[in-house]
Amino acid sequence: MTPPRRDERPGALVDGTPSRQPGPLRRAALACRDFTQQVLVIAWIETKKIQRDPTELLTRAVQPILWLGIFGVVMNRARAIPTGALSYLDFMLPGILSQSVLFIAIFYGIALIWERDLGLLHKFLVSPAYRGALVTGKAVSAGIRAISQAVIVCLLGLVMGAHLRFTPLALGGMLLFIVLGAAIFSTFSLIIACIVKTRERFMGIGQVLTMPLFFASNAIYPLSLMPDWLRLVARANPLTYQVDALRALMIQGGQSTLGLGLDLLVEVLVLVGLITLGAWMYPKAIR
Amino acid sequence: MSGPAAAPRPAAIRIEGLSRNFGALVAVDHLDLTIPAGSLFGLLGPNGAGKTTTIKMLTTLLPPTAGNAEVAGFDVQRQPREVRRSIGYIPQLISADGALTARENLMVFARLYAVPRHERKERIQQALAMIGLVEVADTLVRRYSGGMIRRLEIAQAILHRPSVLFLDEPTVGLDPVARRAVWEHVKELRARFGATILLTTHYMEEAEALCDQLAIMHQGKVVAQGSPAQLMFEADEADTLDDAFVYFAGSAIETGGTYRDTAQTRRTARRLG
Prior knowledge:
Chain A is mostly helical. Chain A has helices spanning 24-52, 55-59, 62-78, 88-106, 110-118, 120-126, 131-159, 168-196, 199-215, 228-235, 238-250, 260-281. Chain A has one domain (35-286). Chain A has 12 helices and no strands. By secondary structure, chain B is an alpha/beta fold. The longest helix of chain B has 18 residues, at 176-193. In chain B, the strands form 2 sheets. A 6-stranded mixed beta sheet of chain B has the order 6-7-8-3-9-10, sandwiched between helices. Chain B has a 4-stranded antiparallel beta sheet with strand order 2-1-4-5, with helices on one face. The interface between A and B is large, with 36 and 45 residues.
C-alpha cells in the first residue's frame, strides 16, 4: 500500500504545520485567528437558519408592536411620566427595542438544551474549538437575530412619528449596543440552560426573569422616578445601560443620564464576565 | 516498515485505573485497558455497564474521578485540546444539524477543525464521495433517512483525519441494509486511513462482523477481553457471541441507565428509523 501523504496520516496536523514549536507571539496570533474563525462559524450557522426560516423574526415583532401601539399611544396622551424634552414615544422607543432584544435573548438558552438532546453539543465539545469561542459564537448569533428586531422597531417608530437619528455614528453605536445587549442576555440564558438542563424548568425560569429585568430598568420610566432601592437594582441591571445608550444614540435630543462611556464599559465587562463563566459552564451541560 | 515484524503495535488508547462516580453510583470502576493502534475494538456491555461514560472520558467530555487515560499519546486530563485534535467522535445521539445541508454540516466541522481553506472543498467532496452522498449534498439533512444521517456523521468525523475514532452505538435504530452500509464505511475508514476505531454496540452480530478485539464491560469493569472467537471459547465454549455476552455480563435485568438516557436513545432510534 502506498503510504499516505503527510497530511493524510492519522493524527497528522491538518495544516501540515512543521513540528518546530512556534514562538509565544505566533502562538497567540494563531489562537486569536482560530478563536475568531470558530466564532464566525457558529454565527454563520445562525444566519443560514434565519435565511431559511425567517418566520420567527416576524412573530417576534408582535410584542413590540403591542407595546408601542397600545401602551405607548395611551401613555403618550396621558403625559403621566415626566420624560424631559422628549415625547413619551421617543423616550420609550429605545426601551421597547431593548425589551424585545431581551425577550429574544433570554430564551436563547433553550437552543442549547435542544442541541444537547440531539447530540450536536457533544460533537461541538469534542472538536478542538475553544469553549469561549463556541459561547461567543452563540452570543453573536443572538446579536444577529436582535438586529432584525431593531429594524422592525425603528420602522414602527418612524410610522408613529418618533424622532430618530440616522447619522452613521448613531447607527453604528446603536448596532453595537443592540448586539452587546443580545450577547449579554443570551449568554446569561445559556448559563441558566447549563444549570437547569430541562426545557420545562428553563421556560419557567425564563418567564420569571424577563419581567423583573424589564421593570427594574429605565426602559419605560426614568431612573429619577424610582424609589432608592429600585434605582439601586436598576443600576445593577445591564438592560439599564443598554437603554441609556440607545436613548442617547437613536433619538434626536436624547441624552445619556449615566454617560455613554460608562454604558459601554459596563456592557463590555458584563459580557466578558458572562462569556468566561459560560465557557466554564458549557461542557457541564452534557454531564 | 522498520523494526522487527513481531514488535508490538504502539497503544492508541491506554487506560489505567480509570473511574467515574456520579454521587454514590460508580459508573466506571478502576478500568484498565490498552487498545493497540490500528485495531477495530468493540466495547460491549448491557445498559449502564459504563461504556458511554468511558467514551465520554476518553473524548474529554467528562473528567475522570480517578485514574488516567491516554488517547493518541495525549493525556485526556492534561492535554485535552491535543486529544480533541486527534480524535473523531460519532455520538449515540444525532449530531448532524437538520437545518443545514450535508455540505454545510461538513463545512462547519472543516472550519472548527481548522482544515486549511484551500483544502476544505476538496476534502468535503472526497468525504461526500466516500459515503455516497454527492447527489444529495445540497439537500437539508432533516430530509435524510437514518442511514444517510449516520453516513454523513461518519464523513464529519473524518474530515480532519483523526488517528482515533470513537463510535458510540453507530447503528442504533438503523434497518439491516443501512446497518451493513455503515459497517462497510467503518471498515473502509480503517483500511484507508489506518485509524484506530473504538466502538460500542449492543448488537453481537455487529461486534463479530467488525471487531478484531472485544471487551465486555459489566458494572463499570472489563469482565472479559479477546477476539470474538476467544470470548466464545472462554465462555464455556458458547455457540454464539450472544451466549458469551450473557455468560460474562449475566442475565439479570440491568438497573443502569437513567430515564433521560433511555428517552434520548429511543428518540434517536425514532429519528433514525
